[in-house]
Amino acid sequence: MTTGEVQSSSQKSTAVVWRNRAIGAVATAVVLVLAYVILSSFIPRWWAQRLAGTVHGSFSSGIWWGLVYGFVFTLVPLLLLVFAVWVWKRKGGKFMAGAAVIVALVCSLPNLMTLTIVLGGNNAAHAGQRILDVDAPAFRGACLVGAIIAAVLFALVLALMGRRGFSRRRSTTAAQPPPTTPPMTGDH
Fold first, then answer.
1. Residue 137: DSSP 8-state
2. What is the largest CA-CA distance in the chain?
3. Which residues cross the membrane (predicted)?
4. Which of 33, 73, 80, 116 is 20 to 30 A away from residue 170, measured at CA?
5. Contact predicate 131/45, CB 8 Å
């Protein structure tokens, strides 16, 4: 092979690689858009029907289950995210930190699906709102209250832990004697 043939084949392979990457990116984008369209018309109705089956049209059940879902599915993901940051900083375990982030996302799905019903503007979201109005009354408001309670509790725990860590660092530095300079010996 001559030098020109080697350059030509390396240029072709680079062009082929970029072409394949572009085709892969376009195919991935198309699949993601199709998945979004299908899921956006399915998830709000399906989730509203699951909640309606749990609440059975009772206000007290709607409040109870809303508080539970809002609290648990907000607090657990937040704790998992703190765990992920801790693992990343202390242990350097990128795999465990990534796994904790993925589990946190999965744990937050019930609140995210409820949010698609509340904030969604498509027909499926409106159908989900009607289902929740009739068969799961007070669930949406109680879910919001539970999420706020969990977020406030989480913030308070973080603040107390941070304050405790600051106090501990301050006490350890205060307990150590200040560095002394060695006496000067020899020539003056």
1. T
2. 94
3. 22-43, 63-88, 95-119, 139-161
4. 80
5. yes
The set of residues, in sequence order, having a beta carbon less than 8 Å from that of 154 and lying 6+ positions away, is 74, 75, 78, 79
The tokens of 108 are what?
């937050």
CB-based contacts of 20, cutoff 8 Å, min separation 6: none
Residue among 80, 88, 68 at smallest CA distance from 154: 80
- Hey, what are 100's tokens? 């904790």
Report the C-alpha gap between 37 and 31 in whole angstroms: 10
pTM: 0.71
* Residue indicated by tokens 């609290």: 71
pLDDT tens figures, 33-71 = 998 888 888 999 999 999 999 999 999 999 999 999 999
Name the band, by pLDDT with cuts 50, 70 and 90, for residue 161.
confident
Provide the residue type at 44 as one letter.
P
The whole-number pLDDT of residue 181 equals 66
- Residues 47 and 122: beta-carbon distance below 8 Å: no
- Are 136 and 49 contacting, i.e. CB atoms less than 8 angstroms apart? no
Sequence spans of domains, the chain: 20-163
